[in-house]
Amino acid sequence: MKANKAYKFRIYPNESQRELIAKTFGCARFVYNKMLGDKINHYKEHGEPLKVTPAKYKADFEFLKEVDSLALTSEWKHLETAYKNFFRNKSIGFPKFKSKKTDRKSYTTNCVNNNIRIEGKYIVLPKLGKVRINQHRDIPSHHRLKSATISQMSAGKYFAAILYEYETDIQPKLIGSIIGLDFSMSELYIDSNGNKPEYPRYYRRALDKLARLQRTLSKMSKFSNNYS
């Protein structure tokens, strides 16, 4: 059975890395809003959903090529998930445009061919290269790195939340013993130990009582005092 666990560490990007991180924040937000806007307009004009990916915009917006493409792909996945959740349950609300002022400064990049890894005091990230990291706890060797979310707090500190996948041997707990139940026409059910329930037979008893009353009624004179 597989499970996920995230480890959050503070990172210390240099000046050029901070500039690229800020640009990635902006490009991820731009792509999300662009795809959402195009989806809305396409549906209004054609009455059908629009399938679009970040790759569509790179020809018209060259600056998107400067940042991690996997971060842009993550924004596409987030939007698709938000769309599916809305159409499955309208109470969740329609996806909203991201604001530069209020949106959280973060982006997620996925691990492909070991492009994200920890090497000593550094974490290697796509486009950024080696970024100094404060790894204050060890990560088990059997954990497999899946993705990293880079974020900047309001105080200016940077963090990397690294998601790992691992195998767990946790098994569901069984309470008491297990028995099988088979349907029975006469006894409702019979379990695998041969036990049968005390079936009350309400309907059969009601039919028997009705038959007795009908027999009694048939013997009475139609206009007697006991006839009703």
What would you say this structure looks like, in words?
The protein has 228 residues and is of the alpha+beta class. The protein has three helices and nine strands. The strands form two sheets. A seven-stranded antiparallel beta sheet has the order 2-6-7-1-5-4-3. A hairpin with a 3-residue loop joins strand 4 (122-125) and strand 5 (129-134). Helix 1 (15-46) runs parallel beside helix 2 (69-88). The protein is elongated and about 110 Å long. The N and C termini lie far apart (70 Å). The model has no long low-confidence stretch (mean pLDDT 85).
Question: Could you give a short description of this structure?
Answer:
With 228 residues, this protein is α+β, with helices and mostly antiparallel strands.
Structural features:
228 residues; alpha+beta; 2 domains; 3 helices; 30% helix
Largest sheet: 7 strands, antiparallel
Q: Assign the structural class, choosing from mainly alpha, mainly beta, alpha/beta, alpha+beta, or little secondary structure.
A: alpha+beta
Number of structural domains: 2
The span between the termini is 70 Å
Spell out the helices and strands N to C.
EHHEEEEEEEEH
Strand content: 15-25%
